[in-house]
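hey so i finaly got around to running the thing on ATP-binding protein from Rhodovarius crocodyli. pasting the sequence first so u can double check i didnt mess up the copy paste, my clipboard has been acting weird all day
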Amino acid sequence: MTVHIDLGTSSGGRPAAMDLEELLATRLLVQGNSGCGKSHLLRRLLEKSAAWVQQAIIDPEGDYVSLSEKFGHLVIDAAEHSEQGLQLAGDRVRRHRVPVILNLEGVDIENQMRRAAAFLGGLFDAEREYWTPMLVVVDEAQLFAPSASGEVSDDARKVSLAAMTNLMCRGRKRGLAGVIATQRLAKLAKNVAAEASNFLMGRTFLDIDMQRAADLLGMERRQAEMFRDLQRGHFMALGPALCRRPQEVLVGEVETRSLGVSPKLMPLPEADARDLILTPPEPDELPARARRLPPPPPADILAQLAAARPAPILQPPPPTPEETRALRQEWEDIARVVMAEPDAAYRPVTALYQDMLLRCRIQGLGSKIPDPSAFRQILAMLRAGFGPGEEEREEWPAVQAQAAALPEETRSVYLLLARAALDGAPCPSDEAIAEAYGSRSLGRARRVLGFIEEQGAIVIRQDLTGRRIVTLMGTGRETAPAETASLV
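ok and heres what it spat out for the 3d tokens, dont ask me to read them lol
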């Protein structure tokens, strides 16, 4: 099915349409000086395509949040979320196909770059089954893919530029169609701009930008002067999703209102300026930052400090053992739900922890959430298959002490072996060990076993049929032979 988006009218008075399916495969670059109508053009494109394709908008100035009222976009305020939270949000946006606006207003430029990169990373790294078509619009793209280093740190620039490069260069196979808008082509990284096949060029005054725009549209350089004469809302269009030859397009009207409207001229008020500005204000009329308390009367400085000393903060009583056990049980129940999701065993621990925190807040735990160390302990127990009541075994203190001496990433494997040894069950297979380690590599599983043996926590031997047996040091307990012969 072919879907055409009505952008407005062409120079001949005919409708100017954009092939949405072709746009998803070829990407779009919009360029023009400030005030030429780029935001109006993007708003028109977003409104007309909202019913057909999922959308994600990187909005550095909060201009597009009004789309949520009419078209149901989810607005994410980047100032209220961490980079890890935004990366997780990007992954969930792909999973649930939710149209979203990442509002970066009020965030300094370096954190804008980092948070946008994290969110784009979540969109890009989604599982293959969620690679459905998505229009990713980035306004003021020169902020996130600068051609040269500026006042931000090199680390922030590299992270942001890598995310934008992934979007424009590798995003097509993942269903991501990049639409980027910039004030100046000279400020935009060339490897990001070069991947676009569709162009809408607005009013431009600098010679270098006019020449680059003419080159991108396949026009002669002597024709580049025409970009200075374009009116507001007029763009030169070219590309497989637009037209095969350059033509002028007048963008049509939009349904929603931008929050970044241009200022309008208005007459000055007629009043006595001296009385308005220089009349002494009443105390209540002063702004908060201009109010000053009267100076304190002279007194002994030590007495003043003693009087100003804050009251001691009463610490809440420590939780009882029963409350601690109940809270840990609640954490374990929530963690089981997290680990029950598909492929949860192979997701990074940081992503699982973010999911855990979100579910704890949903359950109303407030500040009673596990720290990363406590979560890793719970995760190791769950991956090993331990259930309630394990601490009642007489061998459990020795097992717990040995696990604490190992690196955190190997504890789940040791606990898996310990559970099999305490139950007298067969030694876990390489596949089970790899899953407990969070990997799909059987070779890595065998290397982890060797590392734990080098630490003196276990001893590995084989029976006469070549089946692996693991003995726990300090307890004398060992597993039954594995169900299949070990591979060397």
